[in-house]
Write a structure and sequence with these properties.
The structure is a single chain. The chain is of the alpha/beta class. The protein has one domain. The chain contains seven helices and seven strands; from the N terminus they run ββαβαβββαβαααα. Strand 3, helix 2 and strand 4 form a beta-alpha-beta unit. The protein is globular, with a radius of gyration of 16 Å. The termini are far apart.
């Protein structure tokens, strides 16, 4: 996938691959696909793009095999063994329309973020109803990029509450050695949802 690089001062536009763009940053490349289904003022993906924490991509974007696609309906769970991934794609859409959005072909490795409590004002304390920035921060935390996760959360005044609400499960998920162990931990922290 080719994406435009930032335009240099002389005005020449260069084109680089998604992997090259990821490697120009010291951290994992974060991509955001906005479906424009929610209030743009509350859109956390748009703010990540505006603050240069994520690269906005079009609906024609096809993630490479080394990119984690955050998908709440994925059959596979995000876990620390996914650490070798080069990028994270978050799809920002309405929870009311999420099921139809995630059945489109997006490429990449689809992973479900383990259950956590939302800290965003719209879905506060609801399990699994994360905003885009919360999903990205949770992914980074579980993959061992704790400080980077905190930097994403810091762009909202409610952001640090996400880590406070989820400190124990985030740490447990981060320390797991396998996807199966993450599933087990999830069931221990949220047994009422699996009864």
């Amino acid at each position: 996938m080719l994406v435009p690089a930032p335009v240099p001062p002389d005005g020449d536009e260069t084109v680089i691959t998604m992997e090259e763009w990821s490697s120009t940053k010291e951290m994992i490349g974060v991509y955001a696909l906005e479906m424009d289904q929610d209030d743009p003022i509350k859109c956390t993906a748009r703010k990540m793009i505006r603050m240069d924490l994520a690269k906005g991509v079009s609906r024609k974007f096809h993630a490479s095999d080394s990119t984690i696609v955050l998908n709440p309906f994925a059959h596979r769970m995000l876990s620390p063994p996914d650490r070798g991934s080069k990028g994270i794609l978050v799809v920002d859409c309405s929870w009311n329309q999420a099921q139809e959005v995630f059945f489109k072909k997006l490429g990449g490795k689809h992973r479900r973020v383990p259950l956590l409590l939302a800290a965003n004002p719209t879905n506060y304390a609801r399990a699994g109803m994360l905003s885009s920035v919360e999903a990205v921060a949770a992914t980074l935390y579980i993959l061992g990029e704790v400080e980077e996760a905190r930097s994403y959360l810091s762009i909202y005044k409610w952001g640090p509450n996400f880590e406070m609400l989820n400190k124990d499960p985030l740490e447990s998920y981060r320390l797991c050695k396998s996807e199966g162990k993450v599933l087990q931990e999830e069931r221990e922290y949220f047994p009422h949802l699996f009864a």
